[in-house]
Design goal:
Structural class of chain A: mainly alpha
Shape of chain B: elongated
CATH topology of chain B: 3 helical TM bundles of succinate and fumarate reductases
Oligomer: heterodimer
Structural class of chain B: mainly alpha
Helix content of chain A: over 70%
Largest sheet of chain A: none
Radius of gyration of chain A: 21 Å
Largest sheet of chain B: none
Number of domains of chain B: 1
Number of domains of chain A: 1
Largest interface: A-B, 30 and 31 residues
Order of helices and strands of chain A: HHHH
Helix content of chain B: over 70%
CATH architecture of chain B: Up-down Bundle
Strand content of chain B: under 5%
CATH class of chain A: Mainly Alpha
Shape of chain A: elongated
Number of strands of chain A: 0
CATH topology of chain A: 3 helical TM bundles of succinate and fumarate reductases
CATH superfamily of chain A: Fumarate reductase/succinate dehydrogenase, transmembrane subunit
CATH class of chain B: Mainly Alpha
Distance between the termini of chain B: 53 Å
């Protein structure tokens, strides 16, 4: 039997595919969600327990995560701390935006190809913009 | 849920007979986080300073302390549900499943309890 000419629709395939906005935000939702669950909640517990432990333990938290007055290893962890905090902020905004997208999809809306791609792309733009605005406000005010 | 037609007997149960609760709890806690986390972020961003006295005085007030305790309950429940879905997708061996089951059923509860005790200590004195 001869091959049918022209472009025929192809079934989804394990190896033959390309990235689109919807699949990108789908995996981003999972990555940011699990990042927030482990790194975010871990840091939240460290912060709140350091605050409950008194001035010294809270200062130690600040020193290791942000200030690094002692230099040495703290210089490294303070850089990491800033990267992680900005990363968690971005992860939260991305996860929030794709989460709201999921609410829209849950009611059965937004499955048209163009609308789906457009709103998927917008969640990425929103997360980057919101993260920038948040940290600009915190650092510059 | 009825007991008449075949669709009536399974409606609302899902294939494992309890997935609906997981789905709804995930959405419910998502709405909670939608309020609680921006509250925490805006509060932290608006603080004049992030030294011990300022942050501790803020966290000890009734409204922030309540929000922090709700955050401990809500985020850990939401995270537990999400991590469970991730593990179900990627872990297929029996031993791994048992380890994952222990992880998602014990760690979030322990973490939330530790967080709540910390907030209570901040709010009700000590240290």
């Amino acid at each position: 039997m001869a091959q049918a000419p022209g472009k025929r629709p192809l079934s989804p395939h394990l190896e033959i595919w390309r990235w689109g906005p919807a699949m990108l935000v789908s995996i981003l939702h999972r990555i940011t969600g699990n990042g927030l669950a482990f790194a975010g909640l871990g840091l939240l517990l460290w912060w709140v327990s350091a605050l409950a432990g008194g001035p010294e333990s809270y200062q130690a938290f600040l020193d290791w995560v942000w200030l690094a007055p002692a230099g040495g290893l703290q210089t490294v962890t303070a850089v990491l701390g800033k990267v992680v905090l900005v990363g968690l902020t971005w992860a939260f905004f991305q996860h929030m935006a794709t989460g709201i997208r999921h609410f829209v999809l849950d009611i059965g809306a937004g499955y048209e190809l163009e609308a789906n791609a457009r709103w998927s792309s917008l969640t990425i733009l929103f997360a980057v913009a919101a993260t920038s605005v948040f940290w600009a406000f915190v650092l510059l005010r | 849920m009825g007991n008449g037609t075949s669709i009536g007997r399974v409606r609302g149960l899902g294939s494992s007979h309890h997935g609906t609760h997981h789905f709804l709890s995930s959405r419910l806690t998502a709405v909670g986080n939608l309020v609680l986390i921006p509250f925490l972020m805006i509060s932290l961003a608006l603080m004049p300073s992030h030294d011990y006295a300022t942050v501790h005085a803020w966290a000890a007030k009734p409204l922030p302390a309540t929000a922090l305790i709700l955050i401990m309950i809500n985020t850990f429940q939401h995270a537990r549900l999400g991590v469970q879905v991730m593990l179900e997708d990627y872990i297929h061996e029996e031993g791994g499943k048992i380890a994952a089951w222990l992880l998602v059923n014990i760690l979030p509860l322990a973490g939330a309890a530790f967080g709540i005790v910390s907030v209570v200590r901040i709010a009700l004195g000590g240290a």
